[in-house]
Amino acid sequence: MRQPIPKRPPDGLNLAKLMAQAGLLGSKVGRRYSMRPHSIRKFFRTQMAALGVQTDYIEYMMGHIISTYHDIQMEGIEFLRGVYAASGLCIKPKTKPSRIEMLKEMVRALGLNPEEILTKEALTMPHRTVIMAGRDESQIETLLKALKHKLKQELAETPMPTPKTV
């Protein structure tokens, strides 16, 4: 049976040098840097486990030979790519949408155009000066009014079901 061969960078390509060029090494602690190439492997393993990927799959992806190695290998590379993609692993932190962005999405979901609503509101009150600090609150208030109005309109149009008697 053919044994897996660990992946190594091509000649002349040193991972530590790449990390230094990318500014990932940080400060030196004694003879070593605070972040080492092995830190990337630890990050991968920890994040995949936190995202709910089975330990056997993680071990296989890291190149470890485990008792279920051949079973996982039989699944095929596309299956493992699917597991990796489904995990949603990302190096960049996921940004949380702001309150105004979430409200705009809800308004869009009801078939309204939030930008149009905000523009109309701004044009109806040209005398009002909006200070940047209160701008978001003003926009949130305007979008909430439009959202409430649309929901009331849809509820009024929807016929109420009549109770069935047995």
Summarize the SSE layout with pairings.
Blueprint (H helix, E strand, L loop, with lengths): L14 H7 L6 E2 L2 E2 L3 H14 L4 H7 L7 H7 L1 H11 L11 H11 L4 H11 L7 H26 L9
Antiparallel strand pairs: 1-2
Provide a brief overview of the structure:
With 166 residues, the protein is mostly helical. The chain contains eight helices and two strands. The protein has two domains: 15-87, no CATH class; 99-157, no CATH class.
Description:
With 166 residues, this protein is mainly alpha-helical. It folds into 2 domains: 15-87, no CATH class; 99-157, no CATH class. Helices cover 57% and strands 2% of the residues. Strands 1-2 form a two-stranded antiparallel ribbon. The longest helix has 26 residues, at 132-157.
Q: Descriptors for this entry?
A:
2 domains, mainly alpha
Based on CA atoms alone, the radius of gyration comes out at 28 Å
Query: Overall 3D geometry?
Result: flat
What is the number of helical segments per DSSP (H or I, 4+ residues)?
8
Number of domains: 2
Q: Give a short account of the largest sheet.
A: 2 strands, antiparallel
H/E element order? HEEHHHHHHH
Average pLDDT rating: 80
Give the N-to-C terminal Cα separation. 71 Å
Number of strands: 2
Beta-strand residue fraction: under 5%
Helical amount among residues, as a percent range?
Answer: 55-70%
Strand order of the largest sheet: 1-2
Low confidence ranges: none
SSE class: mainly alpha
